[in-house]
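Input record (one chain):
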Amino acid sequence: MIMDEQTSALFQYLILVEPLGFLYGSAGRFLSPENLVGRSGSSFPPNAATVSGIFAAHYGNDAIQNLHLAGPFWGKTEEVNSQQNFYVPTPLTYLVKNGKLRHKLSWDDTKEGWFDEEGQAPTDKFDKGTWIAISDWKNPSKVKKEPWEFSPHLHPRLADDQRRVAIPKKTDQEEDEQDEQGSLFLENAVQMPSNTCLVYLSTHKLEPDWYRFGGEGHLVEVSCLGLNEQNKTLLNQSIIEKQFALITPAIWGSNRLSYREPIYLQKGCPKKYEQENPDSNNQFVWSLETLYTGRPNPFRYRLGNHNNSNPHQPKLLSRGRYAVPAGTVYVLKEPLNKAWQDWDESWFPKEGPSLKRWGCGLALPL
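The corresponding structure, as predicted from the sequence alone:
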């Protein structure tokens, strides 16, 4: 059982996912024939919960209760294998223009604003969705753009109870409505260059093999590397400074409300108090000075519950939440003095497993 290897949240391995063809890049409901918009509903790369599904399918759900994962990241396969260098989201205070790092913003207490090295507040439009090498985290000088491309594909819509193309109904009452549902759906497939791979951090080892990864049964080749000391040191350092950045999305709050920072979740806390006082200071864990963030991202995952008698039984859909995007920079009034793996699990919402299991809010000091 892999649970005997590691039971804390210390990351020990890199999980490399190399696609054998296309990967799945859709999120939410499939698009209808009347609304075939290529990038609508796209979501890539897959979050750590998808990798957790591979562990559960391979080892069984009971064997991975102490598993912790983090991601998604990506890298050049040869570079990851030889140097364990991969790319993480760029902190949002690093302003990128035309693929080049132009400004690094810092918080000014006296002026109460974000300013660059020359004391200016840039107002230009800057690139989004960039990545920096983990090896350059302390002093980044260049950035990378995501290497993958979306390639929408039309597929036949399958019948609800069996794996065959659905035939539109033609009864008298439904003949006029037969085209509303149609027999096609759109998949946002993703193509990655052959020399790149997705990268995830893990506390447990995954056996190298071919696995089905994400929706539509796409195949990937998975390999596993023991994390080197350089990356262990970086990931395990305490956030002793007042400023740090998220490298994975963060979900804070309760099962009902989403927050921009962790709160104290007390068992039996009245629902009415939580709804009437969403910004009550005595609920928050951190003494927050300010933060630099972007639009929240929808976050949802599925938990498998299939059995041998019905292997195609639908999976359980989690509660929909909003995540603070990766790259968000927090400025605290007091140093945190804790590395991510030492953060209290009660800071994270829990629905089945704690969301810390999937690397929620993994952060590094700036």
